[in-house]
Every structure is written in structure tokens, then in C-alpha cells.
Design brief:
CATH class of the largest domain in chain A: Mainly Alpha
Shape of chain A: globular
Number of strands of chain A: 2
Order of helices and strands of chain B: HEHEHEHHEEHHEHHHEHEEHHEHHHEHH
Structural class of chain A: mainly alpha
Radius of gyration of chain A: 26 Å
Strand order of the largest sheet of chain A: 1-2
Shape of chain B: globular
Largest sheet of chain B: 7 strands, mixed
Number of helices of chain B: 18
Largest sheet of chain A: 2 strands, antiparallel
Strand content of chain B: 5-15%
Strand content of chain A: under 5%
Oligomer: heterodimer
Helix content of chain A: over 70%
Distance between the termini of chain B: 80 Å
CATH topology of the largest domain in chain A: MetI-like fold
Radius of gyration of chain B: 26 Å
Number of helices of chain A: 13
Order of helices and strands of chain A: HEEHHHHHHHHHHHH
CATH superfamily of the largest domain in chain A: MetI-like
Helix content of chain B: 40-55%
Largest interface: A-B, 31 and 44 residues
CATH architecture of the largest domain in chain A: Orthogonal Bundle
Chain lengths: ~300, ~425
């Protein structure tokens, strides 16, 4: 038989556990309410929209259309092009931003005169509003009197001006160039912070052992930077997949559909064709694809135990 | 506290309450005299222009019962913002409005019919008669949009280049193509015509389409923009870029800024636009070097161009419809209209009394534009026009210019979008 003292101690532990659960929940409730309001509700609303045909100014005429919007995706020839463009856009932009950021971080980590000032100036592209970046690059890449054409022709690389934003093969890469330029400082700053956290003794020990600069980078710098690189890359993938400001201003998704990405297509369907149901459906599909890619990416990270490091 | 003390406290409280009620009542009567607030939205091509702010101050000063509060929204976002604000119940009472959106908003019952208010409006006889149609869905139907400022497209050309090349200003499609070909020298980055395939290019395109004999809709309102005649005219327009190469290589994505910049910089010899750019063009190139012509026609006996109206509407959800109409009808009176048309916004006045003023009749750019009003054709009031002008035209025109789709495919897509 259990002693009464032991059972009463257990009950009081249970009560305490109950109490310890209530207070944090109470304290968290404002944040939870906020999350429900600004994250859960819009997601639920978007899912609801994707099953309806919404007449935005006449909500009374809104119809439930079951899977019609999803069936519409299969018949939409533009969605396939937008999907391909989105993959090229995300992969291309993130890879080049990461490489550029890595080089930038390694340079900014070295000692040189005026380093503090250069570190500050390097952030300018990241701090510049997207609209300004888009307009600046639009004029620099202009096909009639753009600076880029002028320099390339004067350097003898081109024989005549190229309409970078008006050719199907160059429009998306041109916008990607602008985004890479804008995003490199973000990677550089993140990686610089990680670089500065690597203990100096490791480099010193490697140098004493006679390791070449490449071997130091390959076996010390890179492995210790990897967790930051991978997490930053994941964040950047999500942002880049949703980012459409530059494309919208520089090419509007054109010429034709050459630089149209999934979010821009969803925006056009919702706000220009006023087909909010179909716009929401495209957005849901993008979320599903992105979530799938991120889960696969995280699994890959775990399997390599990079996260643990 | 004794009984007397309690009584004193109660009396004091009652006194305070009475005083508050008295003052509140007084404030209430002051509130009753507060002016009716009319929220008005507009875009301005040049948002730094002080003209509109001065007009609002003038109106508010002369109409003590009404206070107009306005909000500037860029044209590119105007439609989206308006739709979402109206859906959220926070839309304006009245606003500047394009004929492009009329069909869509009337279908959604978002606009107030203005027939009764216009019948009582003193200025109605002064409006150029056929311009009332730009605010209607059918000729016999009610007016939803007060005509205010309109534009007709014409052709700018470099007089100096034409003289040097011994060319006459073109009156027909054939003359136009011949001149554009002669003035094109791609090695010097010089082209005959600034074709606008990017944002907003649909107005320029429609001007050439109708001048070539194509129509958006027939007399019964049926969409005929994909008719064989229209396909032929559209092919001619596409060939300016693809076959004859008289437009810059950047034409598929060139928007207003690029087309204007190319004409100002001496890259192009001709540009189709409206009176709104006349000051910028002549300031840069000099009045002597710039000429202006009606859009050349396929058949000179049947001239045509595109007109688009920027009018004013009262929204159906407004609770201040009468005051809102007072303001938008005042904007269409002689003095405010002359101030607007004479400003940097520089569009054509819809009033006969204003159009007769010397500053319009003696200005070549205004004169050619106003002459164009006699044969100009506007966008039809179909629900799909908003989508066509915002995206469908641009995407399909660019695909046609790049040879990805045929002229027929492009017009089929536009016909489909118009009929949504």
C-alpha cells in the first residue's frame, strides 16, 4: 500500500505541473493571439479562397467552386513557364548571392586600411529600397543609352547595344543580376559574423603545422561556416521565392512571360484579373512546393549533422 | 460624513453632470454645423503639380458646407487600391476614374448612376456632346462617369530630320512605313518609330489599330478585335518591329519613360503620344524641330485615333453622394477645368467654352488633339478592359513582337480577356 504522504506529494506535483502550464500559456496568449490573427487567419482565408470564386465588391455573389481553381492550374499554360522561371530565379539568385557573400566576407575579414568604412559602405545595396534598385538597374541596362551597354561597347566586348530587358533569353538573368547585387551584403554580413566567431588558435595551429591558405579555408573556415551558410541559404530561398518587386518594376514579368515568376503570376491573377480565388490557388501551390523543398533541405542538413555543429 | 455632506456631494455631482451635458449639447450643435467631409482619390501624372491642391482649397473656401479631403495614388496602383479599399468598406466617396475600368466597376455595382444629378447640373450643355458616351455602358444608359479630361493620340515627328531626308509628314500607313524605314539606321542606334510594347503601350497600339480600320467591338457591342481585318492591321504593327525593324530593339518592353527618353535623346524619329508630353518634348528638342500630326491612317478618307477619358465618379457605397457630386461637377466647370488643362497635367478640356479659349486653339498640340476628338474611338466599356490594359495586352503583345505567337493568337487572347 502506498503511503498517504507519497500520494499527496504526487498530487501536489500534479497540481504544480498544472499551474506551471497555465501561467506560461497565459503569458504567451497575446503573442499567440497575434500569431493566429496575422498568420493563421490569412493562411486559412487563402485556403478558403482557393475553393471559391470571389466577387470582391459583391461578396453576396461569391460561389463555392470545389476544385475548379485547382483544375484551372492544369489548364493554365502560363503556370508551367512561371514555375520554371521561379526555379531558375531562386536557385540562380541564392547561389550567386551566397558565393558573392562568401568572397565579400573573406575580404572584409582581412585587415586593411579603411576596413570599417568599407564594411559600412558594403551594406548600401542591402539598405537601398527595392524600388530604387529596380529603377537604377532598369536605366543602367537600358537598351538605347544604358551605362552597361556603353561600357561593354567601349570595352570592345559588344559591337552594338543590347536590349537586356527586352530579350527573352536575357530578361530574367538581367533582373537576377540586380537581385544578386542587392543580396550579396546580407550573406556577407551573416558570414562575416560567423567568421569572426571562429577561434584564432585554430588558424594559428594550422599555420604552425604548415597548412596552405587553401587547406586552411577547406578544412577550418568552410566547415565552421557551413551551419551559417546553410541556414542563411534557407532563409534567403524563402525570401527570394516570394520576392517580386524587382521583377515587377524591371520587366513586369516580360517580355511575354520570360521573367514571370509564380508570385507575380498570382498577383496579376488576383489584382489585375480580379480572380482572387485563382490567385490564392497559385499562392497555395507555391507554399506547398516551397514547404516541400524546405523540409527536404532541413532533412538533408540533419542527416549531415550540420545543425548539431 | 454626515447626511448634509452626502447631499452636498450628490448636488455637486449633479451640477458637474449638468454642466457637461450643457457643454456637450453646445458642442453637439457645433458638430451639426461641421462641414460634410468628402474623401476624394486621384492620380496625377506629375504628383508635384500644385494645381490640384489649389483647386481643393478654392472649393473648400467657396463651399463652407463641404470639406474635400484628397489622397493621391499613383495610376499604376490606383485600380488595385481602389478595389481593395472599396471591398474593405474604406473606399473614397468620389474619385478620378479611367474609362478602362467602367465596365468592370459597373458590373460590380460599385458606381453611382449620375443621371439625376447631371440633369440638375448647370454646366451639362457645355460638355462636348459625344463625350458623355465615354461615361456610359450603353448609349441609352445612365452616365456613371462625369467626363473631365481626355486625350487623343497623335504622332510627334522630328521636323528637322524629315526636312534633311526630304520627306513629307506621313498621312498614310504606307507613307509612315516609308519614312520610318528611311530614318532608321541601326548602326547609329537611330530608329524611325518609338514602338511601345511595355506598360501602357495599349493606347498607342489601339490608336494604330483603329486608324488601320480595326475595331474592338461592332455596332451591336460584339467583340471583333480578332476579326480578319484586325489581324491584318495588327500584323502590320508587329512587322514594324519584326520585319521592317524600324523600332528600337528594346521596343517589346519600352514603357512611357523609355519611349519619351528615346525621342528626346534623338534615338527615334517619331513617337505616338498625346498632348501631355508636348512640354517635355519641345523643351528638350526645341519647338522648331518637333512637328505633330494625326495618326496616319490605312485609308486617309477614314481617319481614326484612340481617345481615353479620365473622368470623375461617385461610389455607390458613399454616404455623401450629394456633396461628392457637388465637388466633381465643380471640377468640370469652366474655371477649374481651364486651370487643370492649362497645368502640367495638360490634358484636353471636355467643355466647349474652354476648348474655344485661345491657349488651346492657338497651340498646335492642343489643336491636333482636339481635331482628333471628332473621329477618336475609346476603349469599349467591357468588364475585361481593366485586365487587358493592366496585363493581358502587354504579355501577348510582347509574345507577338518576339515571334512566340501569331497576330491571330494575340488578338484571340485579347478578345477572350475582354469578354471575361
Amino acid at each position: 500500500m502506498r503511503s498517504p504522504r507519497r500520494s499527496s506529494a504526487k498530487a501536489s506535483r500534479g497540481n504544480r505541473r498544472g499551474r506551471t502550464w497555465v501561467l506560461p500559456l497565459f503569458l504567451l496568449s497575446p503573442a499567440l493571439a497575434l500569431l493566429l490573427g496575422i498568420v493563421a487567419y490569412p493562411i486559412a482565408r487563402a485556403i478558403w479562397l482557393s475553393f471559391h470564386r470571389l466577387e470582391i465588391l459583391r461578396p453576396d455573389l461569391t460561389q463555392y467552386v470545389a476544385l475548379d481553381n485547382y483544375r484551372g492550374l492544369l489548364q493554365d499554360p502560363v503556370i508551367r513557364i512561371a514555375l520554371q522561371n521561379s526555379v531558375v530565379w531562386v536557385v540562380g539568385v541564392v547561389v550567386f548571392q551566397c558565393l558573392g557573400g562568401l568572397v565579400g566576407a573573406l575580404i572584409l575579414n582581412r585587415r586593411f586600411p579603411g576596413r570599417a568604412m568599407v564594411r559600412g559602405l558594403a551594406l548600401i545595396p542591402w539598405a537601398t529600397p527595392s524600388v530604387l534598385v529596380a529603377l537604377m538597374w532598369t536605366w543602367m541596362l537600358d537598351g538605347n543609352y544604358g551605362l552597361v551597354n556603353d561600357l561593354l561597347v567601349k570595352a570592345g566586348i559588344l559591337s552594338r547595344f543590347q536590349p537586356w530587358l527586352a530579350q527573352p533569353w536575357s530578361a530574367l538573368p538581367a533582373v537576377m543580376l540586380a537581385d544578386v547585387w542587392q543580396g550579396i551584403p546580407f550573406f556577407a554580413v551573416m558570414l562575416l559574423a560567423a567568421l569572426q566567431a571562429i577561434p584564432e588558435d585554430l588558424f594559428e595551429a594550422a599555420r604552425i603545422d604548415g597548412a596552405s591558405p587553401w587547406r586552411v579555408f577547406r578544412h577550418i573556415t568552410l566547415p565552421l561556416l557551413l551551419p551559417t551558410i546553410l541556414i542563411t541559404t534557407m532563409l534567403r530561398m524563402i525570401w527570394t521565392a516570394n520576392y517580386m518587386d524587382l521583377i515587377m518594376i524591371m520587366t513586369g514579368g516580360g517580355p511575354g512571360y520570360s521573367s514571370l515568376t509564380i508570385p507575380l503570376h498570382a498577383y496579376y491573377m488576383a489584382y489585375k484579373r480580379l480572380d482572387f480565388g485563382y490567385g490564392a490557388t497559385i499562392a497555395i501551390v507555391q507554399v506547398a512546393i516551397l514547404a516541400g523543398a524546405i523540409v527536404a533541405y532541413l532533412r538533408q542538413l540533419r542527416s549531415h549533422e550540420v545543425m548539431v555543429q | 460624513m454626515g447626511r448634509l455632506g452626502w447631499l452636498r456631494t450628490v448636488l455637486l455631482c449633479l451640477g458637474i453632470v449638468g454642466l457637461v451635458l450643457l457643454l456637450g449639447g453646445g458642442a453637439g450643435s457645433l458638430h451639426a454645423q461641421a462641414p460634410t467631409v468628402v474623401r476624394y482619390w486621384l492620380w496625377l501624372d506629375d504628383p508635384t503639380e500644385p494645381m490640384f491642391d489649389q483647386l481643393v482649397k478654392e472649393f473648400n473656401a467657396n463651399h463652407p458646407g463641404i470639406k474635400v479631403e484628397y489622397q493621391l495614388v499613383p495610376l499604376s496602383e490606383y485600380h488595385d487600391k481602389l478595389v481593395t479599399a472599396l471591398a474593405a468598406g474604406s473606399g473614397p466617396d468620389a474619385g478620378r476614374f479611367k474609362d478602362w475600368w467602367l465596365g468592370e466597376f459597373v458590373k460590380l455595382t460599385a458606381l453611382e448612376p449620375l443621371a439625376n444629378s447631371i440633369a440638375k447640373w448647370v454646366g451639362r450643355g457645355d460638355v462636348i456632346e459625344n463625350l458623355w458616351n465615354t461615361g456610359k455602358i450603353t448609349t441609352a444608359g445612365p452616365v456613371y462617369m462625369m467626363p473631365h479630361q481626355f486625350i487623343t493620340f497623335y504622332l510627334y515627328y522630328r521636323k528637322d530630320w524629315f526636312t534633311q531626308a526630304g520627306l513629307k509628314p506621313p498621312a498614310t500607313f504606307d507613307d509612315f512605313l516609308a519614312a520610318a524605314t528611311k530614318l532608321t539606321d541601326s548602326a547609329k542606334n537611330q530608329y524611325g518609330f518609338g514602338l511601345r510594347g511595355g506598360a501602357g503601350g495599349q493606347d498607342q497600339w489601339l490608336a494604330f489599330m483603329v486608324a488601320g480600320g480595326a475595331r474592338m467591338v461592332d455596332a451591336q457591342g460584339k467583340v471583333v478585335i480578332n476579326s480578319p481585318e484586325a489581324v491584318k492591321v495588327n500584323q502590320w504593327y508587329i512587322d514594324l518591329f519584326r520585319t521592317h525593324k524600324v523600332a528600337p530593339l528594346s521596343a517589346p518592353t519600352d514603357a512611357y519613360a523609355q519611349v519619351l527618353g528615346a525621342f528626346q535623346a534623338g534615338t527615334t524619329a517619331m513617337m505616338a503620344h498625346h498632348v501631355g508630353s508636348s512640354v517635355l518634348v519641345t523643351q528638350k528638342l526645341g519647338v522648331a524641330n518637333v512637328g505633330v500630326l494625326p495618326i496616319p491612317a490605312a485609308d486617309p478618307a477614314k481617319p481614326a485615333t484612340m481617345a481615353t477619358m479620365s473622368g470623375n465618379v461617385v461610389f455607390a457605397a458613399s454616404k455623401q453622394k450629394e456633396a461628392a457630386f457637388s465637388f466633381i461637377s465643380w471640377l468640370s466647370e469652366t474655371t477649374p477645368m481651364d486651370k487643370w488643362s492649362g497645368s502640367r497635367q495638360g490634358q484636353l478640356p471636355v467643355l466647349k467654352s474652354v476648348a474655344r479659349l485661345p491657349r488651346y486653339t492657338e497651340n498646335t498640340f492642343f489643336k491636333v488633339s482636339l481635331d482628333g476628338a471628332n473621329y477618336a474611338i475609346a476603349w469599349p466599356p467591357l468588364p475585361g478592359v481593366g485586365y487587358v490594359s493592366a496585363q493581358a495586352w502587354q504579355a501577348n503583345m510582347q509574345r507577338a513582337l518576339l515571334g512566340q505567337i501569331s497576330s491571330k493568337d494575340m488578338l484571340d487572347e485579347i478578345a477572350k480577356a475582354l469578354q471575361r
